[in-house]
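Supplementary Text 2. Reproducibility record for the structural model of the 233-residue chain.

All settings were left at their defaults, and a single model was retained for analysis rather than an ensemble. We include the record here because the model underlies the residue-level annotations in Supplementary Table 4.
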Amino acid sequence: MQNQITLLEQTKHGDLKLAASDYSHVAEQHIVPVTLHEISRAATEYPIVFVKNSDTNEFQSVAMLGLKPGQNLSVKDGKWQGLYIPAVVRDYPLGLVLNPDVKDKVWIGIREEAKEVSKTEGQALFVDGKETPLLETRKKALISHYEQDQATRGILGFLNEKGLLINQTLTVDVAGEKRNINGLYVIDEAKLNELSDKEFLDLKKRGLLGPIFGHLGSLNQVNRLARVEMQNK
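Retained model, structure tokens:
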């Protein structure tokens, strides 16, 4: 996401307003993070895959919005083309400020330089020194998204320990051009089917079967992205 984030404070930002987003901040992002809680909705439109952070070895679930870096097929003329907008996109230009020295506590931040932020256009964040219903709603959404993201990281670590995440190259045909998309991880269906009844039941009890099958079914959305790319040429 663009722009540096700073702590949101009434004394400093009391006159700021938020305007509707034109999604320019993600117009060139071909993947965005999604939580496992979002997969059931996001999977109906986007391929959902997993990527690995080479520094931390943590896995993250992402929605593919394009088939190559710099390409977002869901943003056109400042409008979102799909029905579902990932939470990380909706959060902008607000976000969370984390202090590594203070665990289990987060603060709300704002990207002051974002075009959605001004003193004249949009909806106020504060009125008479108090948070507006808009800000209260956005704060709740941010905190909920953060909690879901933390849970997602832990769950993906668990799936990796079970050997269910494998590196795979996706191959897609775009107007006769074979394009390989590397660096992605998917659920290993063969390994999933080899789980014992007890292990499979454990996944069910954890509520993971929905996200797992949603992810697997979403891989067919790669062909939809290829079709959209051809239509946009």
